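As noted in the main text, all predictions were made from sequence alone. Below is one such record, for Broad specificity phosphatase PhoE.
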Amino acid sequence: MALATVHLVRHGEVHNPDRVLYGRLPGYHLSELGYEMAERIGAHFGARAAAGASIVSLAASPLLRAQETARPTAAALGLETGVEHRIVEAGNHFEGMSHVAARLREPKLWPLLVNPFKPSWGEPYSEQVERVMEAVDEHRARAVELGGDGAEAILVAHQLPIWVTRLAAENRPLWHDPRRRECSLASITSLDFDGERLVAVRYSEPCADLLARAANLPGA
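Prediction:
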């Protein structure tokens, strides 16, 4: 059975001075710091490839911030960035609102909060896991086809879909406190496979030293 790894990369910081929960809204591009994070991620994977890693596939969510984050990695690896719709940000009924935490005091929004386990305010966690893992499996198989044993693929996505996919991979409940997600900006959640079997989950933060300067909203 061929070994393979799929890296789930969260995008860099977004230019969002009004602190809008932007979700799937178009036009939200990286901030200056976000571009710095994207360059750091590109250098990280470029160094891995130079050291012998067989990174053969790169795709990103269709949203602008993910596509922009992927560009330096594409340049470093000499790969084209595919568009992978299954790893897009989660749907959320609060999309477009600013300062969401403060607005949750408004009674008209309370019906959206009745079931945090699903959650009732957006796309069910289980559906996010299903679509992301479908993409992961396809890109894993494609990486092995292109690069053989030990091949790696990169998918640039968003915090919530990455996090709930990790929770599922580790057999943990999908319900969680958004403030406790271990999925920082420009972080890498790596899924290691032996054939079709997931054997390990790893997490790293190549941009850890940049996070103190970032406006890191919990997201969807």
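The chain has one domain: 3-213. Helices lie at 32-50, 64-77, 100-103, 125-147, 159-169. These features were considered when defining construct boundaries for the mutagenesis experiments described in Section 2.9.
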